[in-house]
């Protein structure tokens, strides 16, 4: 009789591990258990809990059952919580979420830089639901069923979880989900869409469609009808350009402290509709701007911190890596009646060739992306810059860059978590370094 290879059943390989104790949380918000085969990280578990798990990776295990829950555990209010990969912290009480975020930053600073902040200020918090003003949704059109799915990706997967509503999206965006799905389903373009972005701007919400070719006339009129019916601005992002669906559309705007700024719909804007401005106000307060003081601002975007800094009396030199954002920043300065020197540069490269690198600054503000600012901080510490406010969305790279500050005589005077991404493990923190 022929021998046929039969794989061993999955379960036989991965026998459940029962009654494991969760001893802590990692910086991605996953519970830590110590199994006979080593440490494993388990999503959706909390310190102190007893859990049954199945090991499914070299470093991970999947939760089967919580047998003794933590007092901090909540029933997640979102219907999509179990399948959607968006909010991985909804099962945690909000105060515990924020405490964990602060503890994570403290641990990273201590472990990688040997630093303790002289003062931790109470976390900055605002709306914990319907706060998010930008989201990227996945789109798939099933040609056989002629059905369009619009939703978020499942955790660690390409599968799309169809959603009709989202508890963290700003309400003007949340209300668009169903009509947008119905409108997209009618387009010839639907078959070619991979994802769509929703952004809440000051004037009206925007829908950004990434497209490869020009729209067919019927698609254009369908989208115009949708835009008018729901007071939405539709933008089309081609490979190298972004165009409004209707010629009458003005550039989108977002608010910062004391100003409204224009940007392209593809440009970065901060996530939380309220805390983005609270964060700017805190940075201004910590920098303690004096009239005509020279301030160097790095990773400036389209001027979210720059324009308020200049309005507070600083002579700001702002550096940003995207040319169109630098141009936009200059225009935002002109429209708001302030002078700013803005330059386009890759901050991962050394500064000596840059004209602005030779100027003397007394203070600096940095707001890098997750990669941090390794090179920029190396350059800052060579100069006579007394005070640095560093805003970070990645505690690991913040800790690395804090070590550079420490090695050059800077002290971490203050730190404060900004709860920019409630219901998720993502962390935003503002720090103040001073040279002693
Ligand atoms: C976290 S965003 C902050 C933007 C702005 N400060 C704000 O609050 O809207 C980081 C900014 O850094 C810019 N950036 C990222 N890497 C860069 C690099 N290597 N050199 C220069 N700019 C960079 C991005 O284009 C983005 O605008």
Describe the structure concisely for a colleague.
The chain is of the alpha/beta class and 436 residues long. The chain has 3 domains: 13-73, OB fold (Dihydrolipoamide Acetyltransferase, E2P) (Beta Barrel); 98-127 and 272-435, Vaccinia Virus protein VP39 (Rossmann fold); 134-253, OB fold (Dihydrolipoamide Acetyltransferase, E2P), CATH 2.40.50.1070. The protein has 10 helices and 22 strands.
Descriptive report:
- The chain is of the alpha/beta class and 436 residues long.
- Helices cover 24% and strands 29% of the residues.
- It has helices at 10-13, 94-113, 171-174, 177-185, 217-230, 275-287, 306-311, 323-335, 374-381, 395-407; strands spanning 17-25, 31-35, 38-42, 50-55, 60-68, 119-120, 134-142, 147-153, 160-162, 195-200, 205-210, 233-237, 242-244, 253-256, 259-262, 294-298, 315-320, 340-344, 363-366, 387-392, 410-418, 428-435.
- The termini are far apart.
- S-adenosylmethionine binds next to loops.
Mean pLDDT: 94
Query: Count of DSSP E strands?
Result: 22
- Bin the helical content: 10-25%
**Which sequence of strands runs across the widest sheet?**
6-21-22-20-19-16-17-18
Strand share of the residues? 25-35%
What compounds sit in this structure?
S-adenosylmethionine
Structural class: alpha/beta
CATH C-level of the largest domain = Alpha Beta
Distance between the termini: 82 Å
CATH structural architecture of the largest domain: 3-Layer(aba) Sandwich
Q: CATH superfamily of the largest domain, please?
A: Vaccinia Virus protein VP39
CATH names the topology of the largest domain as Rossmann fold
Quick one: overall form? flat
Please mark out the parts with pLDDT under 50 across 5 or more consecutive residues, or reply none: 1-12
Main beta-sheet annotation: 8 strands, mixed
Domains, number? 3
Number of H/I helices: 10
Gyration radius, in Å: 24 Å
Keywords: 4Fe-4S, Iron, Iron-sulfur, Metal-binding, Methyltransferase, S-adenosyl-L-methionine, Transferase
InterPro entries: MeTrfase_TrmA_AS, MeTrfase_TrmA_CS, NA-bd_OB-fold, SAM-dependent_MTases_sf, U5_MeTrfase_fam
GO molecular function: 4 iron, 4 sulfur cluster binding; rRNA (uridine-C5-)-methyltransferase activity
Active site: 393
